[in-house]
Write a structure and sequence with these properties.
The chain is an alpha+beta fold and 175 residues long. It is built from 4 helices and 9 strands. The strands form 2 sheets. Strands 1-3-4-5-6-9-7 form a 7-stranded mixed β-sheet, with helices on both faces. It has a two-stranded antiparallel sheet with strand order 2-8. The protein is globular.
């Protein structure tokens, strides 16, 4: 794969971002990749209004990965003091497994450390997603032992198919 080009999202990217994030996590299209949550959740993964608010937030950035003019991946970075929160990590399902995700994560860590002077990166992952957690552990993240409840009843985060979902907090020191 050629080196991706990175940029930050503007409001003009919202429709393409919604499509990308939904394709990576929900429905049958997401089953082409290995990051699907289709067996855990129905409904939406992101809504245009929430994405607009994220892009407008002065403490956040949505990082895009392009090859030529094709949007292949994205993630959310949010500055929280000396730690950056990492979320909404999405790679187009047909492009997963070829190193793009690692490159996108690496660029997000570089921005957090070099541009924002953050000491660490934090994220939350649905704790039953052991394969995804193992991927992050291989990249230097560690389990903190902290868990957060899943927002049951809030359709903005999807419609759960199980009643045992919760988030696990992962952390990586950047400095």
């Amino acid at each position: 794969m050629a080196d991706p080009r990175f940029s930050f999202a503007g409001s003009e990217h919202v429709p393409a971002l919604v499509d990308l994030v939904e394709s990576a996590y929900r429905g049958d299209a997401s089953r082409q990749g290995w990051t699907t949550e289709a067996d855990l959740l129905d409904g939406q993964r992101i809504d245009p209004g929430g994405l607009e608010a994220l892009i407008a937030d002065p403490l956040a950035r949505v990082l895009l990965a392009h090859e030529d003019d094709v949007l292949l991946g994205c993630c959310e970075l949010r500055r929280e003091g000396n730690v950056a929160y990492f979320g909404m990590f999405s790679v187009r399902p047909g492009r997963q497994g070829n190193g793009l995700g690692s490159r996108l994560l690496g660029e997000a860590e570089r921005i957090a450390a070099d541009d924002w002077q953050c000491h660490g990166m934090r994220m939350t992952v649905i704790d039953v997603r052991e394969e995804l957690i193992a991927w992050y552990l291989r990249r230097g993240y560690r389990r903190t032992g902290e868990h957060r409840p899943f927002p049951y009843g809030d359709a903005r985060f999807g419609i759960p198919k199980r009643d045992d979902l919760r988030f696990e907090v992962l952390y990586k020191a950047l400095r």
